[in-house]
């Protein structure tokens, strides 16, 4: 059992299933993503750089892809509560799979561009 599995063990079952689904989507975009914990949250890294985090809270869950993907895809995120680097969602209103993948892809591409410099 890794750190993310341990984190998910302490999350209510429905949220656990939703976050596990997001975890699967992240690995579809980044098959070799490193799983770790960062800032107390499940974190997915590419070449040592944080791509995305997620977390469960009492009344919602959040995806933390950084500010660039949120700005890039802001029109598709209009129905969600967002802040500079965070998207809040609920079990009743999950982030669509294709949007999760797009957010992770934009974050990954930004990291790859910075690594080339």
Give a verbal description of the structure.
This protein is α+β, with helices and mostly antiparallel strands and 117 residues long. The chain has one domain (3-105): Aspartate Aminotransferase, domain 1 (Alpha-Beta Complex), CATH 3.90.1150. It has helices spanning 3-9, 13-29, 67-72, 97-116; strands at 34-38, 41-46, 49-56, 61-64, 81-82, 87-89. β3 (49-56) and β4 (61-64) form a beta hairpin. α2 packs across α4 (97-116). The protein is globular, with a radius of gyration of 13 Å. The mean pLDDT is 96.
Draw up the topology in text.
Blueprint: H1 3-9, H2 13-29, E1 34-38, E2 41-46, E3 49-56, E4 61-64, H3 67-72, E5 81-82, E6 87-89, H4 97-116
Antiparallel strand pairs: 1-2, 2-3, 3-4, 4-6, 5-6
Helix pairs in contact: 2-4
Nutshell version of this structure?
By secondary structure, the protein is α+β, with helices and mostly antiparallel strands. The protein has 4 helices and 6 strands.
Which class do the helix and strand fractions yield? Answer: alpha+beta
Residue stretches low in confidence (pLDDT < 50, at least 5 long) are none
Instruction: For the largest sheet, list the strands in their spatial order.
Output: 1-2-3-4-6-5
* Distance separating the two termini: 36 Å
**Architecture (CATH level 2) name:** Alpha-Beta Complex
Tell me the β content. 15-25%
| Rg estimate, integer Å | 13 Å
Count of DSSP H/I helices: 4
**CATH class placement:** Alpha Beta
Taken in chain order, the helices and strands follow as: HHEEEEHEEH
Q: What is the overall pLDDT average?
A: 96
CATH topology: Aspartate Aminotransferase, domain 1
What is the total domain count?
1
β-strand number: 6
Taking the sheet with the most strands, its summary is: 6 strands, antiparallel
């Amino acid at each position: 059992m890794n750190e993310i599995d341990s984190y998910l063990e302490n999350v209510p079952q429905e949220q656990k299933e939703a976050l596990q689904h997001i975890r699967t989507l992240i690995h579809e975009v980044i098959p070799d993503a490193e799983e770790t914990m960062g800032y107390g949250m499940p974190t997915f890294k590419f070449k040592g750089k944080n791509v995305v985090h997620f977390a469960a809270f009492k009344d919602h869950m959040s995806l933390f892809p950084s500010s660039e993907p949120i700005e890039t895809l802001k029109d598709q995120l209009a129905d969600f509560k967002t802040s500079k680097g965070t998207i809040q969602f609920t079990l009743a209103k999950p982030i669509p799979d294709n949007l999760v993948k797009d957010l992770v892809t934009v974050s990954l591409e930004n990291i790859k561009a910075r690594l080339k410099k």
